[in-house]
Amino acid sequence: MAIEVRIPTILRSYTDGAKAVQGTGGTLGELFADLETRHPGIRERLVEEDGDLRRFVNVYLNDEDVRFLDGISTGLSEGDSVTILPAVAGG
């Protein structure tokens, strides 16, 4: 099952500069584990040690914030699109 993952500029050093990569998994957590096998170090930038999403990382599944779905346990389907966005703060 192929899922497109859009990578923000700040994380592209893990994907050799790629703006988007393909991954597989039945849940968001499985997808991140799959990405880690091909792009070492990316998972720890997205997920806390306890398995929850990092506070300052926003993840969208087909334009829906996964925090309002099932978080890291959100189910995925063939053809889904996942967008990773770092939270931005300013003053």
TrEMBL record:
It holds the Pfam family ThiS. InterPro entries: Beta-grasp_dom_sf, Mopterin_synth/thiamin_S_b, Sulfur_Carrier/Prot_Modifier, ThiS/MoaD-like. Coiled coil: none annotated. It comes from the Bacteria. PANTHER family: SULFUR CARRIER PROTEIN CYSO, SULFUR CARRIER PROTEIN SLR0821-RELATED. This is Thiamine biosynthesis protein ThiS. It comes from Wenjunlia vitaminophila. The lineage of its organism: Bacteria, Bacillati, Actinomycetota, Actinomycetes, Kitasatosporales.
